[in-house]
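As described in the Methods, two query proteins were run sequentially through the folding procedure within a single session, without resetting any intermediate state between them. The first query and its resulting structure tokens are shown here.
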Amino acid sequence: MRLLGIDYGAKRWGLSHGDELGLALPLAAVIAGSLEERFAHVARVIAERRIAELVVGYPYNMDGTAGFKAREVDVFIAELERRFKLPVHRTDERLTSHAATQLTPKSKSKKRHTPAAQQAVRATGEVDSRAATIILQDFLDARHGPALLPEDE
């Protein structure tokens, strides 16, 4: 079982990888310019990591209804299915970007907290890949239960 988690966005796609261990790990985000380049990047990751299933964050509202971006994500998922012929699972992405932002290491420098600095960090896709990791980990936990780390035993 090798899975690729995806946090879809108009500018960047965050990626994460999970396998038999049940742990999701971030990968470099897809920040290529064109849509074709983005799908080519995903194709390379699928081939290199021998991915068998895809997990995409789905934009539900807090009341459980599909969010305004749901149609856009549905189109994206249909394209993933068409191109890669792999199972695609939708999983709730509510608050994952917020949680990912909270997990991003903070600098003690005040310069890092300016809007321009925050935008620069966002442009790297680091937050998007952290969100993809949360999405995939939530999916893995729901499917198999939380992974046991050595200190949990």
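Immediately afterward, the second query was submitted; its sequence and tokens are:
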Amino acid sequence: MPIALRQLHRRGLIIAAAVVLAATATAVSVGPAANHASAALGPLVWADDFNGPAGTAPDPTKWGHETGGSGNGNNELEFYTNSTNNAALDGAGHLVITARRETPAGSSCWYGTCQYSSARLNTSGHFTQQYGHVEARIQMPAGQGIWPAFWALGSNIGSVGWPASGEIDIMENIGREPGTVHGTIHGPGYSGANGRGAPFSLPAGQSFADGFHVFAIDWAPNSITWSVDGHVYETRTPADVHGNQWAFNHPFYIILNLAVGGYWPGDPNGSTPFPAKLVVDYVHVS
């Protein structure tokens, strides 16, 4: 996200993103004929089950905070803080990232006085992984202008920049589509509005805000496969980037964030409920 190096990169899903995602793949809905992820998982190599007393910060040996209100290249409205007011354990085995309609003390946003606070956590400097099964069990908020994400960036971003580093969006949702999530890759020649991705939708009338769901990728050399609750809905390989560099055969770090507003989701309105809570049961890498 921001115009600081680690934030410059964030995610080229801008105005045309919804159109591009629809153009590059067809939505998959859960149903009796849906494919299921079937590969046996290896041992865990990294995990956070978010066990700890209510109100405590996420484990600082595993997660760092990104802070600021630059808009992250997407015209987002939140100011990311390192406060437990925005990211804390709930005492019941969950991490809760909370977006609030407020002006954080000492904040400054690209559009003037900040109107929202939230949190963005990453494992950079603590954990990176190349290949394997990466999953999180998440209950997300709904509402116009809300933008939760579970994603990963190439750990070489400091030297090669974005999009050469690669970006894997394991799960993104925009609040006006409560029953649909998106999985996308970004790399050189296929970033921003040209990212390669696909949506996945629950049966009509169901919402990802109604309960927890497991969002995962199975990542191997020259292949990434996305699933929701074990239902495989997308696979990407070098053939999908049409001769451009496949930017996903090196280590990545993990990111969890809850954005507010931006080109893709649009801004919140009077119907948007605040505080909005992204509740994460666990993140596992195997």
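Confidence is low (pLDDT under 50) at residues 1-27, 29-34. We note this only descriptively and draw no conclusion about the first query from it.
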